Amino acid sequence: MQKKNDSRHNKPAAAEKTKTAARPAGKFHGLDAQTQRRGGNSERQSKISPCRNASDNFLRISFLPKLEQCKTVQPRREHKRMQPQFYKSLSHLTAHYGITPMQTDCFEYPYNLALSLWDAERMLKKQYADCPEISLIQDGAETYLESEETCDTGTTLYYIPVEPLYWMSHDAWYKRNAKLLLSLFSYLYHIAEVPYYRQQDSYLYWMYEMHREWTEQDDEGEQRERFLHEFDRAEIIGDFIEKKIYNPISLRLFGQRLRSFKCRDAFDWECLSVAQKAHRLSNLFLPFICQKQSAAQHLFNPTASDTGNCLRWL
User: Fold this and answer.
1) Do 168 and 180 touch, CB atoms closer than 8 A?
2) Residue 132 preceded by cis peptide, ω within 30
3) Rounded Cα distance, 118 and 134, in Å
4) How much is the pLDDT for 25?
């Protein structure tokens, strides 16, 4: 017999009543009067002027540049002999660059020399984008100015490989290519005057010698011996190729070798194309180069000598 369910068990549980929220402790009371802003004033700030006796003449004064002691400036006991040579060199320099120097004879030594150098550099910066660098040189009993001219050509430095030409000249299949490229190298050596790494006055010769000395000073080992062997091989190959390209016959036969060259593959076409471009350049600029070489001795007056990129104004 089932028992009846008590209705109390079917009702949901009664929710717990929340407590009434407590009121705040206090209220904000208003002020007894309305807030008033600060009143404006129609009067302006009083004018302040300097004393009547104050002078503004200092605004019209031009201050000379600050003296910087140069290492090349000699002691006072030698300035009597030095100053005439300096101003003579300065006159040659200003005449060459077409600038008007400042009169500094009224100033004492060594301020007059420093002021002249400062003024010359200032004028050159205004007139030339690639401003030459001026230096005061003391060479024994002579004092002169030296200007170094540099310019950014926007080009990239490339190294021309020499060792492949050596191996081509010893290969019967590439011997014709080697003769054609020898004429090209001869043009670069004699006409274009590209520095060769076996020339003692070239930058590459100095780099090879410096790295060889570093290698010789290192501890003994297999890597050291291998590097020294590579240096020896580079010297032998360089001397061999230089004898070939130094011979003027290679340059005179340039055109004949171009006309008789027959291409067999893509490499032959590349060699021919490069040689043709160099030959066209040689024919185009050879008259100008000859004229430049013949006029090089008369380009400057006897008081100026050309040393690389530096001009000495004696």
Assistant:
1) no
2) no
3) 10
4) 53
Q: Residue 175: CA atoms inside 13 Å, Cβ hemisphere, count?
A: 4
pLDDT at 55: 59
The low-confidence residues of the chain, meaning pLDDT below 50, are: 2, 69-73, 288-308
Phi, psi of 154 (to 5 degrees): 70, 15
Of 97, 99, 117, 98, nearest to 107 by C-alpha is 117
Q: pLDDT value at position 305?
A: 40
HEC secondary structure over the chain = CCCCCCHHHCCCCCCCCCCCCCCCCCCCCCCCCCCCCCCCCCCCCCCCCCCCCCCCHHHHCCCCCCCCCCCCCCCHHHHHHHHHHHHHHHHHHHHHHCCCCCCCCCCCCCHHHHHHHHHHHHHHHHHCCCCCEEEEEEECCEEEEEEECCCCCCCCCCCCCCHHHHHHHCCCCCHHHHHHHHHHHHHHHHCCCCCCCCCCCCHHHHHHHHHHHHHHHCCCCHHHHHHHHHHHHHHHHHHHHHHHHHCHHHHHCHHHHHHHCCCCCHHHHHHHHHHHHHHHHHHHHHHHHHHHHHHHHHCCCCCEEEECCEEEEC
Confidence (pLDDT) at 168:
93
C-alpha to C-alpha distance for 95 and 72, rounded to whole angstroms: 23
pLDDT tens figures, 259-286: 999 999 999 999 999 999 988 888 877 6
Cα(114)–Cα(73) distance, rounded to whole angstroms?
9
Which structure tokens are listed for 313? 């104004």
- Which residues are bridge partners to 5 per DSSP? none
Distance CA 149, CA 282 (A): 27
Q: What is the residue type of 58?
A: F
pLDDT at 163: 92
**Which pLDDT value is given to residue 224?**
85
Cβ neighbors of 183 (< 8 A, separation 6 or more) are 250, 251, 253, 254, 257, 275
